[in-house]
Amino acid sequence: MSETTKVPVRPSAAHPVWRALRSNPGISIGGGLLLLMLLAAFFAPLPYDPVTPDPANVLQAPSGSHVFGTDANGFDVFSRVVAAGRSDLVLALLGTLVSLVVGLLIGLPLSTKSRYSEGFMRALDAFQSFPLIVLSVTIVSLTGNAIQNIIYAIVIINGPRFIRLIRGEALAIRDGRFIEAAVATGARPRRIVFRHIMPNVVDVCLVQCSLTAANAVIVIAALNFLGIGVSPPDPTWGSMVQVGAQGISTGQWWVAIWPGVAIFLAIASLNVLAGGIQRRVEGS
Amino acid sequence: MSDVATKAEVSGPGLGTPRRGERRRRPILRYALRRIVIVPISLFVLGSVSFVLVLFIPGDPAVTILGDFATPEQVALVNQQLGLDKPLWDRYLSFWGNLLRGDLGTSFFTNEPVLHDIARFLPNTLELVVLALLVAVGLGLVIGVVGAYFARRWPDRVMTGLTSALQSVPDFFLALVGIYLFFFVLGWAPAPIGRLPIEAGAPEHSFLIFGSLFSGDWTTLGSALSHAALPVLSLGLVYSSYFAKTARGSMGTALTTPQVEFARACGLRERTVVRYAFLASRTTVITYVAILFGSLLGGASIVERVFNWRGMGQWALDGVLKVDVPIIQGFVVVAGLMTLTLFLVLDLVVLALDPRVSYE
């Protein structure tokens, strides 16, 4: 009797997820903070319009009416810091996604030990051997000051890392018994790659995605700091730091520091998330 | 990027098994030779990439470079300098001809020879990068080794937190925070306007710090060091997180090996034990020094710009933003060349240092 009454109190489907989040603070804290920043960027009610300057209130120190102060153009710093997540975070995530796809499309087919793929890896070495941030600045500024070019810059820097990681992981997986079994049953190479190898590289890819997004936030901030990919008056963290840099030696710290803190929080939460995923991957 | 991968891949298959006996006799020599043979190939790729960059300019390159208000004469001059009136193949050959004779062209805007500019700005960048790497290695190793030694206890947690915090700050932002705190609030650091105070005039040495150190010019050295403190620290602190992470990882592994247990059982002092454990991770550290050196040649450019350091990175960045093609090509070639050389030296040093590395 008592056995049957226990059946309805089985844990709900959401329960294991909740337990996993509690047991892995990296994923819950990092992911939670990131989600919060994204949601705030799109849906939070802002005290001021982030793109409407108020010439009467220029370079106001933080106060009750402007919690983060105002910049030299009379923009409200708080509204702009929150709203800048729309371009910064979304671009970072898009760039990461494209890098992942590039890595999968090139890295998986290269996971054979042929002369051809060895040659490609050599070329990749040569490509990675110069300062990629400068190369990406070059390409972005040469191809025009459009915002989607920033995604190319992120892919140029992070694509090779994905290719290397996925190829290495796939090479190791290829030695597995189950691949041997698949070959024995007559599976074609394409089926082996996409059906048997790809699902097994997802774990390492998730960690790398998180690290890539963190790197992408830095790259975006650096490019925007240099005025690349910025369309004023739309706010980005990098361009806000740049505007604030001019007042930093004369004491107007709030214009540059708050967007910098936002960059720091975004990168830190992505790094913490990567650590959490890593722990989860290793634990399972 | 990672030369660890390079090594793994050099020992590729398809090199024929019948000659195994010969390979076993001189594996190191063969590896070194093969590694050196790669250099010309990499140089070829490097030169070609810097040539191809120009093709990325959309529309009429001369108009893109000079802006919409350029006179037809200016456009014609730039077109002639770029050689755009000639077929692509001719341009490629003459590009290589100039490059091999050491001619990197002249800047479109200042008419300075690119090689001359590099000779002027490279020493500044080298000093900044070397000092920043010294700080990064020193601090990073301390953080990593302390963390590994007190694994899973509170010092480890503190050090791990510190590492992730340093990893999450963009260097140019840390530089601005430093300027605010140490220049504006505390007044300890000089204004971020270059390598020396304005009234000091033109510097005597191209290597300001090392030059004045060796010639005993103490006043210049002191002034140069105080100007260098903030840029060096902001780069050094940010990049120390790389060394902290690798040192924590490799030391953590090394400290749990049977050798360390044996060394402790023999009654060696803890200091000696840690030193021996550290020896196992020195190749990783050297590898990272080389990788970061390469990436800092250009990666320091924004910090150089914040402090008006007049380094090669800042020069290249200005060139890039103005689409000054010879400067971009010159920078790509020189920075790439230095990185390639460094990686070659690195691979040979690691080979000499680590008897476990086998290149079969």
TrEMBL record, chain A:
It is found in: Cell membrane. Residues 85-274 form the ABC transmembrane type-1 domain. The keyword Plastid does not apply. Gene3D superfamilies: MetI-like. GO terms for biological process: transmembrane transport. InterPro entries: BP-dependent_transpt_permease, MetI-like, MetI-like_sf, OppC_N. It comes from the Bacteria. GO terms for cellular component: plasma membrane. Keywords: Cell membrane, Membrane, Transmembrane, Transmembrane helix, Transport. The chain crosses the membrane at residues 26-46, 89-110, 130-157, 201-231, 251-274. It is a multi-pass membrane protein. Its main location: membrane. Belongs to the binding-protein-dependent transport system permease family. This is Dipeptide transport system permease protein DppC. It comes from Actinokineospora spheciospongiae. The lineage of its organism: Bacteria, Bacillati, Actinomycetota, Actinomycetes, Pseudonocardiales.
From TrEMBL, chain B:
Pfam families: BPD_transp_1 (PF00528), BPD_transp_1_N (PF19300). Residues 122-350 form the ABC transmembrane type-1 domain. The keyword Transport applies. Keywords: Cell membrane, Membrane, Transmembrane, Transmembrane helix, Transport. InterPro entries: BPD_transp_1_N, MetI-like, MetI-like_sf. GO terms for cellular component: plasma membrane. It is a multi-pass membrane protein. GO terms for molecular function: dipeptide transmembrane transporter activity. Residues 1-21 are annotated as: Disordered. The keyword Membrane applies. The chain crosses the membrane at residues 32-57, 128-151, 172-191, 224-244, 285-307, 327-353. It is found in: Cell membrane. Belongs to the binding-protein-dependent transport system permease family. This is Dipeptide transport system permease protein DppB. It comes from Actinokineospora spheciospongiae. The lineage of its organism: Bacteria, Bacillati, Actinomycetota, Actinomycetes, Pseudonocardiales.
